[in-house]
Amino acid sequence: MVVVNQYERYQINSETGNIIIKVNISHRYFSRYYTNYAAARFCLDVEEGHEHRGLLREIIMRLAISKLQSNKETGLLEVNALLSNLLSLLIMYFKQSRTHIAESQQKTHSVRIKNTLDYLQDNYNKPLSLSLLAKISHTSPAYFSRLFSQEVGISFKTYLTQLRFMCCIDALEKTDKPLYQIVEENGFYDTRNFTALFKTRYAMTPNKYRSLYREGKSPVTGGFEFPVRTPPERPARFGEIRPSELLALLGNSLTAHEQMAELEPLSTEKWMIELPASDDVSLELPHPGYIVSIGRLEELLKAPVQQQVMTAREQMSLQYIHVEHIISENTLPEGFPTDEICPSFSHYANADMAVEFLKKQGIALLISIHFQLSEEDMRSCTLRFLDFVAHNITQFGDDYVSSWAFSYHPNVDFFADSEARFLRLRSKIKAILPRMKTGVFYPFPLEKEAMAQVPLFTSHLIRNIDFLGFSANANDKVSHDGFAKEDIAGAEFFVEQHARNILGQLKKHDLSVPLFLQTWNTLTGDTRLTNGSFFRGALLMDTLLSLPLPIAFVGFWINSEVQKETREDKRIDTSSLSLFYMGSTRRPMFHVLRLRERLNGVVLARGDNYIVTRKAQGYRVLLTHSVSFNPSLSLQNHLMTGFRKQINVAVTGMEQGSYQIKRHLFDQKHGALCHQFECQPTRFGRDSEVMAFIDVHSAPDLHLYDEDIAACWKVSVEMDVNAICLFEINKITTP
């Protein structure tokens, strides 16, 4: 940071590229609130890490953010509040005396001189004289001259010459106007005299100055005692930066300072919800079952994964554990030579322990088999898979293994071969287990037009499947070059729309088959390697509640570690979401599903941001505040304050009586996992005590109270970005 005082000239150079943010405060604005402004200069003479310097840096960044966001309702108020804080900091901590003004001379400008300075700033390019200014000030020229020199520190003539001179230099640098025009427009009447003055000050002609400046070289060698920095060795390059990139950089640099009090803008909305006298049977919420991916079957031998599976099973309708690479040396190792008549070791030993655990939990397996390019490899894969199925029938019974499902992943580049191999494998599976579901996972194109050209819909394969699996990742639809809301318009409802495009093609070909949404994601934010620290609770909830009813199952990863291990580059697979982070630490998706499970009963009313249901003992009211944010910016939670809202809800039509109410609030500060990690900053790992603390505090906030409801139930909730608020309103029964 650097403070450039009025009538001082700076040149800043760097060996690397930079983004320059300039906050220009006019002398009129400053002197309006600080009358001694002209008698002071400001300098950042404190060390880089000083708290007041940090506050000053934060204000500048917040000013830039406010300018970029351009909030029509509160933007100007926010800017003025920030400017007031900035001026206060400058005056209290960074003010210095001007070297040419004695301490005894530092006093408040008189009204005459203040008005004169304002007049000069607006009329410096017009014919001016000491007599004229004295006349305007209603004083004699001699008195005016003494007063001006005393209060400003330099004579009227010197002040006016410097002012005109600096305006000429600014025009030389920023315009292509000829010298004579610049001289005339800025109050000098003789080009020859101006050039002579210029050469005296800078030891070169104005044209030479302009030439050096355009080449990126420093033309300044003296003049008016302005501070000058070392000239660059290479030409300066200037260009524009995308607003999204600048906002992201500002957000990364912006830190919270408790010393600085802020007034965050908070808009208010009123929602009137009128419940019908009778139930609306046309309103039905999707409630699919859940699939949890664990990568390889042997993951179930790990105690933390088993605990995570059991926790998920207790909290939600978990029906399938999805595994891939079942035919691998790690999962099903080949047998080895032994002299035992009855081998003591079975290559199914580890698999048996994993499957036995699932059977005890009442959870079935969903096994994926991928197309093998070689016919020989495909045949070997098929034989080993069928042998595995037969072994499990022997070990765990026909009924349990029949609950399993088999998902085939065809190769779209060799679709005819893929189709033939699937049909052969399916016939062999059905011969052993007629009730076992067999389906296909197909990589559908993103665009609706391309969907119509998919050969699957006209194939024999699709008429011989029990389910159709697919993926829907909203991030694949986003243009990362844009900044406006239109750039993410195609991604806001992508999961729902993608599913409806598939259903549209099925209906077109007179087909009806359940859908398995095996992998999916909303906009994740700019942290594409960690699945997003931007809180997305409402986006996740709204996506689940907007799914078409034919989607029978929705998939998730069990934890972030497995999600990472399945990729060769060891990055988290952000095409889908995970339920746990590590150990027992639950990710936001887990809590969203938990809240979703509580939203049961008959639907009475539904809007864009609310749902009201009725149960035997009372009501459920779900409020959401979804904000789809450009992934280039969504990590920057500092930029989100403008989206916060105060929601005043009024619900009419409830049965009168006394109720006990539970309020579950899930937002950035009440349950967001990444926020809890940020509250425990360390680069050296966290012990079990800290992780347990993080897990407890990453759950939604819970508040319990009683209320008598008469004609209308009213509640007011402050909704942060992507907040979820669920009210469980249970009627109190009295004897």
Task: Output the keywords.
elongated, alpha/beta
What is the secondary structure topology, with strand pairs?
Blueprint: H1 27-33, E1 40-42, H2 51-69, H3 75-93, E2 95-97, H4 111-123, H5 130-136, H6 141-152, H7 156-174, H8 179-185, H9 191-202, H10 206-214, H11 243-253, E3 267-274, E4 289-295, H12 303-315, E5 318-323, H13 349-361, E6 364-370, H14 375-396, H15 398-402, E7 405-409, H16 415-432, E8 437-441, H17 448-451, E9 467-473, H18 489-492, H19 494-508, E10 515-521, H20 537-545, E11 551-559, H21 560-565, E12 578-580, H22 588-598, E13 602-606, E14 610-615, E15 618-624, E16 645-652, E17 657-666, H23 673-678, H24 688-697, E18 701-709, E19 712-719, E20 724-731
Parallel strand pairs: 3-16, 4-5, 4-11, 5-6, 6-7, 7-8, 8-9, 9-10, 10-11, 11-12
Antiparallel strand pairs: 1-2, 13-14, 14-15, 15-20, 16-19, 17-18, 17-20
User: If helices are DSSP runs of H or I spanning 4 or more residues, what is the number of helices?
Assistant: 24
- In helices, the fraction of residues equals 25-40%
Distance between the termini: 72 Å
Largest sheet: 8 strands, parallel, barrel
Could you tell me the mean pLDDT? 82
Shape: elongated
* Unreliable stretches covering 5 or more consecutive residues: 99-107, 221-237, 256-264
What is the count of β-strands? 20
Strand content: 15-25%
- Placed side by side, the strands forming the largest sheet appear as 4-5-6-7-8-9-10-11
Rg computed from alpha carbons, rounded to a whole number of angstroms: 36 Å
- SS class: alpha/beta
